[in-house]
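Good morning C.,

I know you're traveling, so I'll keep this short. The sequence:
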Amino acid sequence: MAWIILFAAGVLEVGWAVGLKYTEGFTRFWPSVATVLAMAASMALLGVSVRTLPLGTAYAVWTGIGAAGTLCAGIWLFGEPATMARLFCVFLILAGVAGLKLVTPQ
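The tokens, ready to paste straight into the viewer:
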């Protein structure tokens, strides 16, 4: 269950990171509210997951999901470049996340 909670926290991290773009420097009210709520929910779920999972593993997985997901969202939503080098680096991040999942008890 802790891994599912951690995954949800990572997805919410992608949500708030993308939300930052839409807030336009926190000058737009509703996008800012949604972004702050996603931040709070992401942190809360990360906090719940570290009750069971090792802190270093949980944090690395959380940031890995956030980084890879945000990069993919940037490509999809904002037309950022999808070069082979960028996609390979995302693959490496996801391989690290999967590796941590495989070697961490629980």
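Safe travels,
E.
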